[in-house]
Design brief:
Layout lengths: L2 H19 L5 H11 L35 H27 L7 H14 L6 H13 L8 H17 L2 H5 L2 H9 L8 H7 L1 H16 L10 H7 L4 H16 L3 H5 L2 H11 L17 H5 L5 E2 L2 E2 L9 H4 L8
Antiparallel strand pairs: 1-2
Helix pairs in contact: 1-12, 3-4, 3-6, 4-8, 5-6, 5-10, 6-14, 10-14, 11-12
Length: 326
């Protein structure tokens, strides 16, 4: 049995195990939703320390103050490690993407991102959550606390995309890594259908912005299959949906990145004007079509790379006999 087939079998077994446990209530999911949606204490700054020097007002009607949570040194250490590793993996991924023809080198940062941000940190890089939290904090600064790591996780991949394309998608993102791992037999969908389905990401982006602006909540996170998988929690219906989605990833290349992820649309906008984005040298290209046939997201047409859609997977470089893709 091949390595990828074994990994797919393990993931499906984990999904089946989750189905048996899903009937029991889990506190982890409630804590996640409270952390994402509940308004934060306005007396806390981005580092989680109390900035209000005055005593809290007294109530005479039996009101009970809610429990306050402060970011301790251990939590700050984890967040600092997350930020450092994110920047390091982005730098390593960008360097490997532009300097190595063998795309297997990209599995060094991509595998580290999947293990750390996905399974160890339970999917702490959430594209939808980052957009919602930053939007809500900008619209209503006093209603939602915004951590330094959230700002870093939102801005640094965009800066990397502006510099050298969507290397976050191809070398760091745990959701992209899992889809890349499962999509070893992925097939293309017809281009007209693909163009229609790509509108889903824009709809998700508009929905996330609207929900964060007016409701300070992101209900779509409740239906994110990666939250269920990485946190190993959720109702039985979500485990069924997650299992079906993983099977879809086997047949279709990166369906979440192409048709659902709102952050991918933002990355694509910056990648479109990137300084060091991947391009095809027309003077060297032999028009063999090898890069176009191997592109899993259909981002290459007639010797031109659509940097908006390119996920920096490296297949075009690996399959170009003339080294025209640079």
């Amino acid at each position: 049995m091949s390595r990828r087939a074994l990994m797919l079998l393990l993931l499906l077994l984990a999904a089946c195990a989750g189905l048996g446990r899903a009937s029991a209530a889990t506190n982890m999911q409630n804590e996640l939703l409270n952390e994402l949606f509940a308004p934060a204490d306005t007396n806390l700054n981005v580092f989680g320390t109390n900035t209000c020097p005055h005593a809290l007002p007294a109530f005479n009607d039996g009101y009970q103050f809610p429990e306050q949570h402060f970011a301790g040194p251990v939590a700050l250490a984890w967040r600092s490690a997350d930020a450092v590793l994110l920047v390091a993996l982005l730098g390593l991924g960008a360097w490997l993407f532009h300097s190595r023809r063998d795309r297997r080198w990209l599995w060094l940062p991509l595998g580290a991102g999947l293990l750390w941000f996905g399974f160890l940190r339970h999917g702490c890089i959430c594209p939808i959550g980052a957009i919602g939290n930053v939007t809500a904090a900008c619209v209503r600064p006093g209603a939602l606390g915004l951590s330094v790591f959230t700002v870093i996780a939102f801005l640094v991949p965009l800066a990397a995309a502006l510099l050298c394309g969507r290397v976050f998608c191809g070398a760091v993102c745990p959701m992209g890594a899992l889809q890349e791992l499962l999509g070893w037999r992925a097939r293309r969908v017809p281009r007209p259908l693909d163009r229609v389905l790509r509108l889903g990401g824009w709809l998700m982006l508009c929905g996330a912005l609207a929900a964060a602006t007016w409701a300070l909540a992101l209900p779509i996170c409740k239906f994110d299959p990666f939250v269920t998988l990485f946190r190993h929690t959720g109702p039985r219906e979500m485990w069924l949906f997650t299992t079906a989605f993983l099977l879809l990833c086997v047949l279709v290349a990166r369906p979440y990145c192409r048709w659902v992820c709102p952050y991918a649309k933002l990355l694509g906008v910056f990648a479109k004007i990137s300084f060091l984005g991947r391009r095809i040298d027309a003077a060297v290209c032999g028009r063999c079509g090898g890069c176009e046939s191997k592109c899993p997201v259909d981002a290459i047409r007639e010797g031109h790379i659509d940097l908006f859609a390119c996920v920096a997977c490296g297949r075009c470089t690996e399959n170009c006999a003339r080294s025209a893709v640079r």
